[in-house]
Specification:
The chain contains three helices and two strands. By secondary structure, the chain is α+β, with helices and mostly antiparallel strands. The two termini are 20 Å apart.
Length: 143
């Protein structure tokens, strides 16, 4: 089982979201599923949303951005780093208080087990250490 000495993040930054509901495309609600709500900048010369008339949706602006220190920080206080082999894990040795590892989805269970074991030695936090390990344990029990 993977149980590292609980590595705590260097400085835990509280993430403050200035706007929680997403920006939607102009008039997307008028077209009932035919126009996806994903954000597109309005370009029309007479477009009332682009011209920021009163009563229209807000435009995406830089002021809604997240604090730079809190950007890309996941709820456990770390930033994610994708691990595809043991060498990638060594890169986290000096940054184990800022970054945590996430094993890529296409890594085999055997390679994954060696990564998990090495992460425990290096005291590196992994977000998905228990994935595919149970499947391998069940295989071993059946033999």
């Amino acid at each position: 089982k993977y149980k590292p000495m609980t590595v705590k993040p260097l400085n835990r930054v509280r993430k403050i979201k200035k706007r929680t509901n997403s920006f939607t495309r102009f008039q997307c609600e008028d077209y009932g599923g035919r126009l996806r709500p994903s954000w597109r900048k309005p370009h029309g010369i007479d477009n009332r949303m682009r011209r920021k008339f009163r009563g229209n949706k807000p435009l995406v602006a830089i002021g809604y951005g997240t604090n730079k220190k809190a950007r890309h920080v996941i709820p456990n206080g770390f930033r994610k780093f994708l691990i595809t082999n043991l060498h990638d894990l060594e890169l986290l040795l000096t940054n184990n208080r800022t970054f945590c590892g996430e094993i890529a989805h296409n890594i085999s269970s055997r390679k994954r087990a060696s990564i998990v074991k090495r992460a425990a030695e290096l005291n590196v936090r992994l977000t998905n250490a228990s994935g595919k390990v149970r499947f391998e344990e069940k295989k071993a029990e059946n033999k």
